[in-house]
TrEMBL record:
InterPro entries per UniProt: LeuE-type
Signal peptide: none
Cited Pfam families: LysE (PF01810)
GO molecular function terms attached to this record: amino acid transmembrane transporter activity
Protein name per its UniProtKB record: Putative amino acid transporter
Compartment list: Cell membrane
Source organism of this protein record: Gordonia aichiensis NBRC 108223
Transmembrane segments: 6-30, 42-65, 71-91, 111-130, 150-171, 183-204
Keyword S-adenosyl-L-methionine carried by entry: no
Upper classification of the organism: Bacteria, Bacillati, Actinomycetota, Actinomycetes, Mycobacteriales
């Protein structure tokens, strides 16, 4: 029992270390939380995707990915291009006049739920770091725990679920800050810089 508990704790801490980072996926979840737009579906998609990838890595998918590096290269190109596009769209919003930016997020909330879900899926599955960190690294560490590898996977999955719930739900508390158009311009500016930078880095590394 102690072995499994220690493995679960190790999974929780490892998962937190790999997941808690500034990246397109986390930024998108936070944005949805701030805008109060389809928060629960986005949280569910990101958390469930991570659970699937963690389980796949523990089950041995990491070895398959390692044997086919082309998969990672394709993900880098597709994911990099997609993230750059999202960054450019954020830059365009940032450069609009203050009058063109609504302080009321109702316009954003009316956007299709399926668009939000599709974006969350793309930012997760087209991100090559998902395969390098969640599948390869997490899978290797989990298997080092022997019989406790599935306890490790449970701990890592819990870290993902808790993290996405925190930033998605926590984003709602920031909504009063974004009652002013200028706050939205600053947010979009930061998002544009981070996403374009990360997307360009992915394309270069490919």
């Amino acid at each position: 029992m102690t072995t499994y508990l220690l493995a679960a704790i190790a999974g929780l801490l490892t998962g937190a270390g790999l997941i808690v980072a500034v990246g397109p996926q986390n930024i998108f979840v936070l944005q949805q939380g701030v805008r109060r737009a389809h928060v629960n579906p986005v949280i569910a998609v990101c958390a469930l995707s991570d659970v699937v990838l963690i389980v796949a890595g523990v089950a041995g998918l990491g070895a398959l990915v390692s044997a086919h590096p082309t998969v990672v290269t394709v993900a880098k190109i597709a994911g990099g291009a997609y993230v750059v596009i999202l960054g450019l769209l954020a830059a365009r919003r940032c450069l609009r006049s203050s009058e063109a930016i609504t302080a009321n997020p109702d316009e954003v909330r009316t956007a299709s739920r399926w668009v939000a879900i599709g974006t969350a899926l793309a930012l997760t599955w087209l991100n090559p770091h998902v395969y390098l960190d969640t599948v390869l690294t997490m899978g290797a560490i989990a298997n080092s725990h022997g019989n406790g590898k599935w306890a490790f996977a449970i701990g890592a999955s819990m870290a993902s679920v808790v993290w996405f719930t925190l930033i998605g739900r926590g984003g709602r508390r920031l909504a009063p800050v974004f009652a002013r158009p200028r706050a939205w311009k600053v947010l979009d500016g930061v998002v544009a810089v981070i996403m374009v930078g990360m997307g360009a880095a992915l394309l270069v590394s490919a």
